[in-house]
Amino acid sequence: MTVSTFVPNRRQRRSDQPLTALTYQLEHIFERENLHNFTLGDARGLVIAQAGDIHESNVLAAYAPVLARSVAGRYRRQVLSRIGTVVPTITVDSLHVRQFVMEGQQLYLTLVGRPGVYRDVSLYRAITGVRRIFDERPAA
């Protein structure tokens, strides 16, 4: 007699299209962690995928490269003040930008939500999800 272990698949929505899969990944974390916004952008400041208000995501993606370089000081406060006109819930503690490299390209995850450990966990899960999705795409 053979006993096989059943491992449930946590992913409920799937797509063979990378951009759709990225959106599903961000939406899953967005809902699970009760975030206000979660945006994946590129070095040009363009949205690749997002969960939350699209207008807020456009602003967050545009400023992500600047915010990733300016971690403190008066300049960061000025940038946050400008962003705050579009994203009124944003505070220094609620915003986090994580820069990472994927296939030689700088990408930025911008998260707006409550501060704490789960913010870092959410960013880590999203980055590993982005890498998994790009690694699983079919070869051309």
Q: Structurally, how many domains make up the residues?
A: 1
Annotation field: number of helices: 4
Enumerate the spans where pLDDT stays under 50 for 5 or more consecutive residues.
none
Helix content: 40-55%
How large, in whole angstroms, is the Cα Rg? Answer: 16 Å
- What is the name of the CATH architecture? 2-Layer Sandwich
In spatial order, strands of the major sheet run 2-1-4-3
| CATH homology-level superfamily | Dynein light chain 2a, cytoplasmic
Q: What is the CATH class designation?
A: Alpha Beta
User: What is the global morphology?
Assistant: globular
Mean pLDDT across every amino acid position: 84
CATH topology type: Beta-Lactamase
What is the CA-CA span between the terminal residues?
43 Å
- How many strands, what sense, and barrel or not for the largest sheet? 4 strands, antiparallel
